[in-house]
Amino acid sequence: MGIPFVRELKFAYGEADQVSPLIRRVIAENPGPFTYFGTGVYIIGRGEVAVIDPGPMLDKHFEALKQALASERVTHVFTTHTHLDHSPLAHPLAEWAGCKVYGQPDPAGTHAMASLEEDGQAGFKPDVLVNDGDTFSGPGWTLDAITTPGHMSNHICYALRQENALFCGDHIMGWSTTVISPPDGNMGDYYQSLDKIRAREFDVLWPTHGPPVREVTPFIDGYVAHRRAREEAIVARMKAGDRLIPEMVKVIYKDVDVRLHAPAAHSVLAHMIHLVEAGRAVAHGPLTLQTEYAPA
């Protein structure tokens, strides 16, 4: 099964678009291989509002958010996780608004072994720690926190009850698959988190990057099938004699831009760790990109 990607999105940088009865979105001008068009910041409600993933510290973007929020009272600033395209503006925005930041701290010392242009915001700490099942509300809106480790160990999604919608950060993206980069990213956790979201049967997913996903169950099924197929391809390469992840990437991702082979190698490492844990592969040394692997 292929992933039914959705990639078309009409928007203008810095403008607050009303994308549903309770949701507005402002997209930061930070396009790239991990951010697609840029970071989509969500404003929930009217009058007393919540903001999810304020995004990168860009002056023009900060001013656009201030303009969008000028007639509102911001009561909560949420982060889904602490990658540099999501959380840096959280505390400055909360200070400007006079409210608190909600989320989980950055997992210090557990980021990828090599930069993927998606590093974590080292030292980030929320004012209020968010746990699985926590509920937050304002006039006409209620958000439920759902912890979804995998992309990062501190990743949280937020469900908007009134629209049966999920703000899914980088857990699920409509335009692309999600990079799982050890040591903090964990493929086993990611599978469990995908199952957790699928079971909730949301009507729509609002990723931080790209357009919404409206055919939710088929999309998640496609995501999982893609990951399972990738694992089988890795096992096939080991059986063919490949022992190093860079060797496998050259074959498995031969049709992918070579500039994306580095993040692909990190995802293969995450799969390899999962295969070792499941007893399907053997590692001859520490679990790294340069470890020799063989089928169990």
**N→C terminal distance:** 27 Å
Poorly predicted runs are 111-115
In CATH, the homologous superfamily of the largest domain goes by the name Ribonuclease Z/Hydroxyacylglutathione hydrolase-like
Number of helices: 6
Strand content: 15-25%
Task: Please state the average pLDDT score.
Answer: 95
Number of strands: 14
Percent helix range = 25-40%
Main sheet makeup: 7 strands, mixed
Q: From the alpha carbons, calculate the radius of gyration and give it in angstroms.
A: 19 Å
Could you say how many structural domains there are in total? Answer: 2
Say what the CATH topology of the largest domain is. Metallo-beta-lactamase, Chain A
What is the overall silhouette?
A: elongated
Blueprint of the fold:
Elements: E1 17-20, E2 23-27, E3 40-44, E4 48-52, H1 59-68, E5 73-78, H2 90-97, E6 100-103, E7 128-129, E8 135-138, E9 141-147, E10 156-160, E11 165-169, H3 187-198, E12 204-207, H4 216-239, H5 245-252, H6 261-277, E13 281-284, E14 292-295
Helix pairs in contact: 3-4, 4-6, 5-6
Short description:
Helix content is 27%, strand content 22%. The protein has 296 residues and is an alpha/beta fold. The strands form three sheets. The chain has a seven-stranded mixed sheet with strand order 1-2-3-4-5-6-7, with helices on one face. Strands 8-9-10-11-12 form a five-stranded mixed sheet, with no helix packed on it.
